[in-house]
Every structure is written in C-alpha cells, then in structure tokens.
4-hydroxybenzoate 3-monooxygenase
Amino acid sequence: MRTQVAIIGSGPAGLLLGQLLHKAGIDSVILERRSRDYVLSRIRAGVLEDGTVSLLDAVGASARLHAEGLPHDGFELLFGGRRHRIDLQRLTGRRVTIYGQTELTRDLMDLRAASGATTIFEAEDVALHDFDGGKPHVTFSKGGTAQRLDCDFIAGCDGYHGVSRASVPADAMQLFERTYPFGWLGILADVPPVSHELVYAGDDSGFALCSMRSPSRSRYYVQCGLDEDVANWSDERFWDELRRRLDPATAEALVTGPSIEKSIAPLRSFVAEPMRFGRLFLAGDAAHIVPPTGAKGLNLAASDVHYLSQALIEYFNERSQAGIDAYSARALARVWKAERFSWWLTSLMHHFPQDNPFIRRIQRAELDYLVSSDHAMAALAENYVGLPY
Ligand code: RFL
Ligand code: PHB
C-alpha cells in the first residue's frame, strides 16, 4: 500500500489533519489501534476555541456543530461563596463553543468515510521505519495479516501513549514534564446543567467544574486524590462532594441523576521537543499534554495540524521545504503559551496537599485581583478564547 502521508491515530488531530490534506488533494491513510466504536466512546473535551471552529468550517465538518453546539460568551469563577462572571465577549470580542469531542470525532469520521479516504481501524503492532531517511514506511497487522504502508511522511497523531514519540531515539528529544498531586473525577449525567455557562469553583473545599454537553446533559468534575478508586465513588457520594464545593445557591439549584459515565483522569503538563524528526511529525497529545483546567488540549491538537497541513501542502504543491523546517518551532511557540496558561489556572484553582495557609491566601488574593481588574480579566479571557495562530 502507498500514500503520501501515513497518519497514526484517528483522534481529533489525525482526523482533522486527514481532512485538511484531503481538501488540498493530498492523499492520506489513517492507522488506528482501536475500533471506531471504542474511539467514539471516549468522553473528553468540551470547549472549542473559535480558531478550532474555523478549521472545522474550512474542511466542511461543522454543520452539526453550528446546529447543536452551544456558543458561550462567558464563564464564571466561584470563590469566597460568590460567582464572578468573566465576560469573554466584552473583554475579547470572541466566544467559545461547547461541543463534545465525541461528536466532533464522529463528524470528522463521517466526513472522511464520505470522502473515500482510507482509515484502518484495529491496526495492531504499528511500527514506524526509516523516517530519518528518504523512504519512510509503516508496518502493522490487521486481522493477523502483516501489512506495509509506504509514504512520503508520517504524522504521529497517536496521543500520549502512542508509538510515534516512542519511536524517536531518546537522545534526539528533550522532555519537559510536571505532574500534579491530584486528578479530576468526572461524571456525565442526563440532567440540565446547573448554570447556562461553565462554573470553575476554587473554594476552600477543593476545585470543581460545572460543564455541559447540551441543555439536557451535564459534565461535572471534582478534584480528587491520585489514589482514589472510581469504584468507591457512588453517584450519591459524587453529588454530595460537588455540592460541598459550590456556594449554597448553586448547590441548591443542582439537579442530580444517575451517571452515564464516571472516570478519573490524572493531571499532567508535558512537552516533547522538537516536534519533527526527519520525515516524522508529532502533533496533538503525542507531543504535549496540558492539564484540562484551561480546556486547551484538543484546541492545541487543532492548531498543530493547521501548521502541519500548511507545511505539507507547501511541500507537495510548491516543492518547498520551508514550512516543514519551520513546523516544530511554529507549533511549539503556541504550545508553550497554552502550557503556561493551563499550568497557571491549575495552580490558581486547586488545592495542593503541600500548600500552607500562606499559599491559600495568595491564591485568594490573586482571584480577588483577577475579578477586580479588567486588565487581569482580559489576560485570562484572551488566553481562554485562544491565542492567535
Ligand atoms: P487522542 O484523542 O488521544 O487520539 C490519539 C489516537 O491514537 C490512537 N493510538 C494509536 N493508533 C495506532 N497505533 C498506536 N500505537 C496507537 N496508540 C494510540 C488512539 O487510540 C487514539 O484514537 O489525541 P489527539 O488526536 O492528539 O487529541 C487530543 C485530545 O484528545 C486531548 O488533548 C483532549 O481530549 C484534552 N482535553 C480537553 N481539551 C480541550 O481542548 N478542551 C477541553 O475542554 C478538554 N477537556 C480533555 C478534557 C482531556 C480529558 N482527559 C480524559 C484526558 C477533559 C478531560 C477529562
Ligand atoms: C468539559 O466539558 O469536559 C471541560 C470543560 C472545560 C474544561 C475542561 C473540561 O476546562
């Protein structure tokens, strides 16, 4: 089998890259380790920057997003027993859109299937070869049969645990990492959201987030210890803990019901540099992870593949290496700003076990400052809606 670009992974990064290339007449094959249904069962991101929405517009994958997604002009910070609104529209003239990653992935998969491009699900033992030379290829097996895919380039869009980054010699890469001493316990439930906008709560009892997928489906999170077992969290225990972290009026308004998904995600900041090794490019979670507090992970995957598709289009259409040579530095410049923002918001809003009362007072002073200064709020807002590409 031969293609121009072998894409490893059919998450948002791989699927969006495939469509951006397809629009430009560039052929790709996606190799995905899991089944289609498995990929579509993962509950993840919910907040899209308008840059991400524009990319989905550009590939024609946004009809359902515009019909069913929820445009949000602001969000709220809850501390000191009060909710404070961050007016994104007033501060930046921009907004975000609430649309689940699962739905976005489904839209991109449907579009890819309709375009006739090849996706091979349940591709086992994917291995990357000769990406340092001129003849890269990928081997894998499907249903027990060994196969080989020859290509001009490999795009490693296979997430944090994928094979692409692991194929790069350790001495060719620098890793930057911070782990946090807590995780997020998340729940999805078919109950109306407690508020029409997201509420980030950072009060004395620990962080909580009230988010949503639709006017009838809520997504809630509470900060939890890394040693917590989801099996010990009944729905009742979760709702009690969430109520404890909200102000009385919000807690009173909370509508509870049976969960349809419950899981714990550890929080991590991670960057691998560079994002290109010869004819292999890394994009999305394969190259970097942010803690979810800033809602940046999926949006960074989108900006990476925007830069990467431009570079590849330039190469195939104009035979110019310039975009390819610039890819890693261009992508990393935006990645590091989102890393900074996500680290900062995580540090501001969470309880760290080692924190002493001094740090708690500093966090509170910063939150007070933030909601009293338009300059500080504007800095938060412009990062939240997404820095320019
Ligand atoms: P993905 O989505 O992990 O997709 C990678 C794909 O590669 C496949 N794969 C392989 N395929 C072939 N061979 C192998 N050896 C392979 N190994 C892996 C995997 O099966 C998978 O299908 O990475 P991608 O495309 O880079 O997308 C990144 C986003 O998924 C991620 O950054 C976001 O979900 C992060 N995130 C959020 N991002 C936002 O922008 N806004 C949010 O509101 C937001 N909320 C979140 C989040 C992530 C969370 N979790 C669970 C980590 C909330 C949570 C709780
Ligand atoms: C979500 O809805 O899953 C979500 C929203 C905002 C975040 C993180 C996750 O910051």
About this structure: The chain has 13 helices and 20 strands. The pocket of RFL (ligand 1) is lined by residues 8-14, 31-34, 39, 44-47, 101, 123, 126, 157-159, 161-163, 184, 186, 265, 284-285, 292, 295-299, 301 (CB under 6 Å). The first helix runs from residue 12 to 23.
